[in-house]
Amino acid sequence: MEQHERLWELIAKRTAGILSAAEEMELEVLLEATPEVARQQELLDKISLQSTGKPTLERKEMLLDRIMGDIVAAENKETPPVPEMTDDNMQVSRRRWRAIAVAAFLALLLGAATMTYLRTATSPAVVWSTVQTRPGSKTRITLPDGTLVMLNAGSTLSYPSNFAKSGREVKLIGEGYFDVTKMASYPFVIHTNTVDIKVLGTTFNVRAYTDESHTETALISGAVEVTVKDAGKQHITLSPRQKLLVANVITDTVAKPAPAARTDDQKPLIVLESIEKEHTGSLIAETAWVENRFVYRNEHFSQLIKRMERWYGITIECHDQALLQTSFTGNVQGESLDQLLGMLKQTKQFDYNVTAGKVIIH
């Protein structure tokens, strides 16, 4: 895009209030490099300061004539004549964005209704990108604001190509580890089926698989506010080294501390727990997968095999009901599926065979 055309496009978008943070930085750089356009922008600002009250249609036309006249005069004074360009599309496009910039300025004077129309007419449709990870794989993503996301196996993350000035919003199904870029004026919100998680800049893990009984938010540093969608919009703020588990079907609206000892089936519908380090040192079970470690603590086999399916990219069937209710604890890294099954058999004996890419346990 020709430089002047891009400048007027960005000026129009800033005046209309639809300029992204990245575009704001781009505009400042271009204005510094193009002082004649910067002075034309100052003309708009100057007239804005001189104008008071809501203008009539006649006043609107006078303002338009004055602005366009000042811009043309500034161009004739500040830049020498040049031969007429032969690219008609370039000329029309530049005039179009300059007109939009002026229209945006007038819209600010005329009120919110005009501004709403202007935004609808000039703002392009938001384009969303979706990243999916297959079972047995993980991926790293850098979002438009610089936020880093590690996406676990069998997960989906959707995000816009450019974040809106009102905030940064993404959608997650599955599990993701987020290191959010700090931007105090632009909150970062993760939408899942069960909860919305709002942050300003922090590090945390979200586990929101649709085939699991709970959605888990584990905060490593910073602060997050979790809104439980189906619990009267209850807001719960987490401190570092806390995690919140919310049942994927909500009927209770009270966040309760976890009991000293319980099974997965006895969990309250909303429970707040402390994050504990593993005995091995600094390892945290909730984020161990980021370091390619498979950690399970007092976990029912019925839940464990779901994680194993995603981790190894294989289907597992278990026909032993007693085994499904047995709890396992362990910490492995780099072991094959066969090696892990062998370790689990040391806790409770079972037999299995692999047929056509499927593990059958009996």
TrEMBL record:
Residues 293-361 form the Protein FecR C-terminal domain. Keywords: Membrane, Transmembrane, Transmembrane helix. It holds the Pfam family FecR_C. The chain crosses the membrane at residues 99-118. One of its GO terms (molecular function) is sigma factor antagonist activity. InterPro entries: FecR (IPR006860), FecR_C (IPR032508), Ferrdict_sens_TM (IPR012373). Residues 130-225 form the FecR protein domain. This is FecR family protein. It comes from Chitinophaga varians. The lineage of its organism: Bacteria, Pseudomonadati, Bacteroidota, Chitinophagia, Chitinophagales.
